[in-house]
Amino acid sequence: xxxxxxxxxxxxxxxxxxxxxxxxxxxxxxxxxxxxxxxxxxxxxxxxxxxxxxxxxxxxxxxxxxxxxxxxxxxxxxxxxxxxxxxxxxxxxxxxxxxxxxxxxxxxxxxxxxxxxxxxxxxxxxxxxxxxxxxxxxxxxxxxxxxxxxxxxxxxxxxxxxxxxxxxxxxxxxxxxxxxxxxxxxxxxxxxxxxxxxxxxxxxxxxxxxxxxxxxxxxxxxxxxxxxxxxxxxxxxxxxxxxxxxxxxxxxxxxxxxxxxxxxxxxxxxxxxxxxxxxxxxxxxxxxxxxxxxxxxxxxxxxxxxxxxxxxxxxxxxxxxxxxxxxxxxxxxxxxxxxxxxxxxxxxxxxxxxxxxxxxxxxxxxxxxxxxxxxxxxxxxxxxxxxxxxxxxxxxxxxxxxxxxxxxxxxxxxxxxxxxxxxxxxxxxxxxxxxxxxxxxxxxxxxxxxxxxxxxxxxxxxxxxxxxxxxxxxxxxxxxxxxxxxxx
Length: 488
Fold this sequence. Notes:
Number of strands: 23
Low-confidence stretches: 444-450
Radius of gyration: 23 Å
Helix content: 25-40%
Mean pLDDT: 87
Strand content: 15-25%
Distance between the termini: 69 Å
Shape: globular
Structural class: alpha/beta
Number of helices: 13
């Protein structure tokens, strides 16, 4: 199996080290990549400086054309990309196809922003001293952008940073996830085939602690977009601007709550929580992982949630109808088992709580979707992000008490509620902490499947508001403004 090459300053290169990419489904090798050397990392960053000069010579219509062509090529290779994504990340094929479609849409939306990246003319005669003066603002690209993408959405969460940065006139050095880098290679090929100038888009593969760290410390990199854990994200935020302040766009996960009212449609609520908590194995920053249920309806809600969880199909992600595939690696399995041990000791495991090892599960990283009750709201499992299919449910005395507990978290990415009471809906919307919130969302109270024209970002330790999405709310993050004053 020929390893996938590194893209440095317009050239596809090999390296002395090769990494096997194994499927979390059965452990088989589904691809191989070269690991970038320190020299290649340096040349990718410095090459992006030369590429930046070439990029500034392109008109907005040319940049938009490259992105539209990229979107078209993604669509043309949809099935190939989805199969590869499913294999490397263990993602059900249905969800893999959705992610490829979302990636293509992101590039198309970014292309459309080329026509709207305009400055402003501002009257300044708001005081006598400024009479006869006119203010003009103009936006400029930042420069080379480092993009670090995660394993859970290895394609879609590359599309936003790459498309937004490129259409704004920047260059990109992409460092994809070490667990799922193969779809990034196909994206790189689509961008290069679309006619991108040499050095404008670079891609280097390798471990975050080496390749990613080297890129963060490189003075040629002018900005960064990162999706990953809170610990790493905060380190990036604190240390990235070593020489001067640079744009840092981070999305660092969440511990997303749902409040279930005594006035809720419990069938709808159980379905929504189940889909949000266990979709993609709970391996998404927007996954619902803690639920606050008013006491009078707690037991019935738990019964319905357990019933729906037991009905989920777990197995080969390439098989139609499978809802839950494997989780990504042994480290995640260890996290899951440790959480289940704590839950068994301090609360009650209603369903799940074990690794699946029989039959088709024997070679993969399979765990049972797990519902836990009886834990105190102060328990670690209500506070720490786990990134596995695990949801904790507890009783609260009132809807307001549920909101108060939800807001105590250090995270505030997404939040949801289920209630048919209009006053409670207004209270939730006005008081809940979170960058993205949902009401009565049957498909999942915190699924993250937001329209691509909306911003998607967090408060508190969840990151920077507006980080993800597409178009209007995304591209400006890769531009800086210059104000000019004209005097008559």
